Amino acid sequence: MSSTAVWVIALVAVWLTWVVLTAAARMRRLDRLHRRLDAARAALDAALVRRVEVARRAGIDAPMPAGSWAAREAAANALGWALAELDRTTLPPELRYELADAEQMLALARRVHNDAVRDTLGLRSQRLVRWLHLAGRAPLPRYFEIADPEHSEAELGAIRMTPVGAPERT
After folding, report:
1. Model confidence over 35-44: pLDDT tens digits?
2. How many CB atoms lie within 10 A of CB 129?
3. Among 41, 78, 79, 163, which is most exposed with the fewest C-beta within 10 angstroms?
4. Does residue 25 form part of some domain?
5. Res. 88: pLDDT tops 90
6. Is the predicted pLDDT of residue 118 greater than 70, yes or no?
7. Is residue 145 part of a domain?
8. C-alpha–C-alpha distance, residues 159 and 97, integer Å
């Protein structure tokens, strides 16, 4: 065997080793991202359920569909519109605070979920991950898009500054 053939075999072996190690690293990263996505989805679901419960106590009929995420997204947007039309000044201070807190937690959970989706989609779009089918049969994750609640800064400040159970400031 000539020295050129040895060098070619060595280079191919080094390249194959690099491909295998890179694929293994990407597989581990993809697995961690899918776990992170599952945890973010569970937190988002819990935040949605909490906002529905608080909205029901505020007198809004708010069903939570147990179906697909698209149905949950539509229901969350419908509830958001209903909450936007709610006159919060008529609510007791503790309920108003709890509603604002539930909305803020939902916005945070949605951002965390969408960040996990973005990171997962970014890794799954890489050539090596696609070519070697490292994602397996896992479905592509979807962003969860709902409208964030809009409150005036004065309303948010009053809500944040009023402890639960304290009399309302005027």
Report:
1. 999 999 999 9
2. 18
3. 163
4. no
5. no
6. yes
7. yes
8. 6
Residue 31 to residue 55: CA distance in whole angstroms: 36
Tokens coding 144: 């969860």
Count the domains in the chain: 1
Q: Which residues contact 45 (CB under 8 A, 6 or more apart)?
A: 72
Q: Is residue 146 part of a domain?
A: yes
Q: Can you say how many angstroms the Cα of residue 46 is from the centroid of all Cα atoms in its chain?
A: 11
Q: Provide the residue range defining the domain that includes 106.
A: 32-161
Please provide residue 54's backbone torsions phi and psi, each rounded to the nearest 5 degrees.
-70, -40
Tell me how far apart the alpha carbons of residues 27 and 37 are, in angstroms, rounded to a whole number: 15
Instruction: Of 164, 39, 8, 152, give the one whose Cα is nearest residue 88.
Output: 152
The pair of structure tokens assigned to 56 is: 């029901």
Percent of the chain with pLDDT over 90: 54
Is 79 part of any domain? yes
Q: In whole angstroms, how far apart are CA 5 and each of 10, 13, 19, 130?
A: 8, 12, 21, 32
Residues 134, 28: Cα–Cα separation, whole Å: 10
For the cut 50, the answer to whether the pLDDT of residue 170 exceeds it is: no
